[in-house]
Amino acid sequence: MGSSQGSTISTNVIGIVDGSSAQKKVPYIDSLPVYVKELIAGGAAGGFAKTAVAPLERTKILLQTRTEGFQSLGLLKSLHKLYRHEGFFGLYKGNGASVLRIVPYAALHFMTYEQYRCWILNNYPVVGTGPIVDLLAGSAAGGTAVLCTYPLDLARTKLAYQVKDSAVSVKAGVTSISVNPAYIGIRDVLTSVFREGGIRGLYRGVGPTLTGILPYAGLKFYIYEELKIHVPEEHQKSIVMRLTCGALAGLFGQTFTYPLDVVRRQMQVESLQPAFEGQAKYKNSWDGLTTIIHNQGWRQLFAGLSINYIKANLPDSIYFWFLVLFSGYCNNISA
Fold first, then answer.
1. Reduced to 3 DSSP states, what percent helix, strand and coil does the chain have, rounded to the nearest 5?
2. What is the rounded CA–CA span in Å between residue 61 and residue 205?
3. Sorting pLDDT into bands at 50, 70 and 90, what band is 260?
4. What are phi and psi of 63, to 5 degrees?
């Protein structure tokens, strides 16, 4: 990112005043509007962080949705099973959809957060400039990003849910391996879902998503800012401090809203489950929570949570760290 070859464009500036023919390199990124820089920072941070933990994300989805053959497996056994039946790239199945979704999501979240924060400060000064503003701005930014990118999240979940069945049947001397209903790719998922259920189909599960993302996004930014207040001033710019604050902020937010994430995942893949094909499994978020507790046990609401701790804290730490580095890089260029 610091290379002049990738981040700047050499522009010839003729010295009119002194008549010299000296050339001045003008950083390309310095000429971009602030909101574009915010989009680049948020998008790059989100995409990089998501890719780093893609195998863990897929395993978590399989546990949340009680995929056949994975209900009783732990993290390592699930990863080993995926690798054995689908190879190395099977661990990253759906990662393309994940990155395609998380880049605009993270970019919109970061950009709208700054915009909402400025709007609140300008129009409601009575709120003050403390963590409350971060809570409100973070919640609004999270909701906006979800609504704009939800169909891609739906596609990502459906693609990740598809696993080659490990059950091998031998009949009349013929060996066969059954495969769950498959989508070819992102476009196939979106067109098929839209054809079957229209816009409502593309936003199946958005209820628990919004219910969870609003407090999660708000708490994440709120706790992050609150933790920084209690850090000695001499350590405010420490990378370790920012990584730690980001990790703790993600930990609290993810734990509080995790049951809603399980409901969301199960609602997203219910059309791929034969027992519920063509009909809604859960009417709403509350029905999903109560039904899962009654039929699957309360522990299912936290299935994969330990994986989520590993998966969530690292991306959140990288996310905040990357934003700080990029912001500092832009400031140094503009100086």
1. 75, 5, 20
2. 14
3. very high
4. -75, -40
30: its two tokens: 């310095």
pLDDT tens per residue, range 140-159: 888 898 899 999 999 999 98
pLDDT: is 73 or 329 the higher one?
73
108: buried, middle or exposed (CB in 10 Å: 19+, 13-18, 0-12)? buried
pLDDT at 275: 61
Domain spans, the chain? 1-30, 32-334
Tokens for 136?
């409100």
Q: Which two tokens stand for residue 263?
A: 């409901």
Q: Is there a contact between 204 and 154 (Cβ–Cβ < 8 Å)?
A: yes
Domain spanning 32-334: CATH superfamily: Mitochondrial carrier domain (1.50.40.10)
At residue 33, the pLDDT reads: 74
Entry pTM: 0.71
- Kindly provide the residue ranges of all beta strands, DSSP E only, lying in 91-230, ordered along the sequence: 164-171, 174-179
Residue 98: name the closest of 140, 62, 149, 133 by CA. Answer: 149
pLDDT of residue 215: 78
